[in-house]
Amino acid sequence: MDNPGKFYITTPIYYVNARPHIGHTYTTVVCDAVARRQRMMGLDTWFLTGTDEHGQKIERSAAAAGCSPREFVDKIAGEFRALWDRMKITYDDFIRTTEPRHMRGVQALFMRLQERGYIYKGSYSGQYCVFDELYVDAVGPGAPCPECGRPTETVHEENYFFKLSAMEDRLLKYYAEHPDFIRPETRRNEVVAFVRSGLRDLSVSRTSFKWGIPVPNDPQHVIYVWLDALANYMTAIGFGSENPKDQEKLHRYWPADVHMIGKEIVRFHCVYWPAFLLAADLPLPKSIIAHGWLLFEESKMSKSRGNIVRSETVLDTLGGDALRYFLLREIVFGQDGSFSFDALVARFNSDLANGLGNLASRTLSMIARYFDGEVPYPSPSERTPADEAIAKLGEQTIADFHAQFGQFQFSRALETAWALVAAVNKYIVENEPWAVAERDDQDSRARLATILYTSAEALRIVTALTHPVIPDATARIWTQLGLGEIGQVDLRSLAWGQLQLGTKLGPIEAVFPRADKSTIERMQQMEQQRAADAKQEALPPSAQPAGTDAQPGQPVTQAAASPSPSAPAPVADSKITIDDFLKVELRVGEIKVAEKVKGADKLLRMEVDIGTEVRQIVAGIAKAYEPEKLVGRKVVIVANLQPRKLRGLESNGMIVAASLGDDGQPVLAGFLEDVPVGAKLK
Ligand SMILES: [Zn+2]
Fold first, then answer.
1. Widest distance between CA atoms in the chain
2. What is this structure's pTM?
3. Cα dist from 87 to 77, 472, 512, 619, 629, whole Å
4. How far is the CA of 495 from the centre of ligand 1 (A)?
5. Cα dihedral across residues 541, 544, 549, 554: positive or negative
6. Which among 458, 444, 445 has a CA at the least distance from the CA of 496?
């Protein structure tokens, strides 16, 4: 079934719960560089990326943003696509899991598993992590998720289950027989250990929300987001379609050659996905390659730390090539790497501006000046050991670069290419072509031709090899070399000495103007501005600044677990004494009445019995809770809060809620045991 002349590579499909940031860019750039190179190696290449758009988190984020899930996913998916287009990512297809072609394919896969007896109906009751969309081993409402630490929710559901437990031996056998299936080795070992420790059946449907793909013939259930998402690698190339053209495409490209992923989703790709495929009797992908995390100045980028870097900042200052080069050169693929503006600018200046940029501009401008813009004829009688050494290094560079890049050692491959750049820049300095040009004799003329031919040929080789990594600049250097369209180059036959004598150069321009200190400052300012804008726009209701009647339309809430906005700002040492804590009167209350507030779609008005009295409390939880389901529920109330007015209604107290996920979805605090109304918490 496999077609050796093809190459199919995928990025993970990105979850549209958040906007694209530099971590997404890293994975995508790696795949793009690999895809571009495989095309230049003559392979029939297919490069897939896309967006993962279903699940409860999306449903809730959309509610928090005050729009429909459809509007929400359209917007974020559009941002991903626009960024990839701007970065000249050469994806062949962009799949969205809300497309009919995907939904049909996922249902086909579900039925295939069902027909083969791997899916059965059962029931589950326990803790669920909305953030991970996973049932987890945790006890009690609000108990932290063992995966991510966020509070879990208690659910009781009838679900469809996948017989993952039956797949243990087959998976272990597969890993053993295919040592390259999971890379790098560390990830492979983790996966094998995980499977050896025993697998439990996996719930593959949900009834607690609607934003998903319905289970065939049982539309009360939607299909588990990970089963939905993973199937994209096949549905995008035609799985589930009856159309002969789609089937032809599926046969042509499946199994995928590389699923490129971040290490945090190894289990889904290396355990669940192959288990589904084995059970469905479908061929498995050839390799799953997990890269490390991209840290910002050594710490993990996260919304809560506020240190997420957006690619646009680098694109607006140094350009796409600078970012692509940095990511592939600076980070040892497979390990965690660190991003910083200082390191980016340092790399840019040393390798691109002073390295390749300098080699290109001095070589090309001297050919323009001394040889009227035509590649000169090197003299065979005038070859020195220095010329020979560069030619030899050029040949060696081609061989080493191919071997290293082919092994996903991008950093080493680029190091290899830049060793040639450095050697040629040194060669030019030592051979002083500008001085040779001063001497007006026949021998000197031949010597000058040899030096410049050697430099230009080395430049051509580096340019061709690194085109997949820095496509823009190399395309421009290629044109300046008078060689036309760089995408047409066949890298398989690249060798020293192919630069045609007499080639007429194109117009010459600098490709990498040097960056200075102000570039770093500009990038930092842009990031701060973007962070501030995003905060303004994307704050969940529970974290919005206090609204008053003077600001109609502002989503406001008193349901947040965060301190009341009117509280004094925390000082540097924010630990408080027990006395401070005891000032807050927390009580168990029971909701007696709950109703929506007219004209405020996020607010609920509630009457809460706190034992001594019934209080009116207004909270911004309407998007997360149906009012009728809240009646009778026991909640935790901050009872001694100063009353305030929301939409003209007096709110007398605050309901305590967890702020869940990146969007701060409110989840009400509660008790596992039965507690009397009015009980004090301390
Ligand atoms: Zn979790």
1. 108
2. 0.77
3. 16, 10, 17, 43, 47
4. 52
5. negative
6. 458
Residue 154, classed as helix, strand or coil, is: strand
Instruction: Using the mean position of ligand 1's atoms as its centre, give its distance from the Cα of residue 663 in Å.
Output: 14
Q: 538 is written with which tokens?
A: 């994307």
Tell me what pLDDT residue 583 has.
82
C-alpha count within 13 angstroms, C-beta hemisphere, residue 604: 25
Question: If we measure between CA atoms, which residue out of 421, 449, 424, 422 comes closest to residue 436?
Answer: 449
User: From ligand 1's centre to the CA of 538, what distance in Å?
Assistant: 21
Gap from CA of 99 to ligand 1 centroid (Å): 27
**CB environment 143-161: b (16+ within 10 A), e (fewer):** bebeeeebbbbbbebebbb
What pLDDT, in 10s, does the model give residues 470-502?
Answer: 999 999 999 999 999 998 899 999 999 999 999
How far does Cα 239 stand from its chain's mean position? 25
Q: In angstroms, what is the span from residue 336 Cα to ligand 1's centroid? A: 22
Q: What is the Å distance from ligand 1's center to 264 Cα?
A: 12
C-alpha angle with apex 369: 363 to 370, nearest 5 degrees? 90
Q: Residue 327 and residue 527: Cα distance in Å, rounded? A: 18
pLDDT per position as a tens digit, 261-305: 998 899 999 999 999 999 999 999 999 999 988 887 767 766 666
355-381 core/surface letters (b: 16 or more CB in 10 A; e: else): bbbbbbbbbbebbeebbebebbebbee
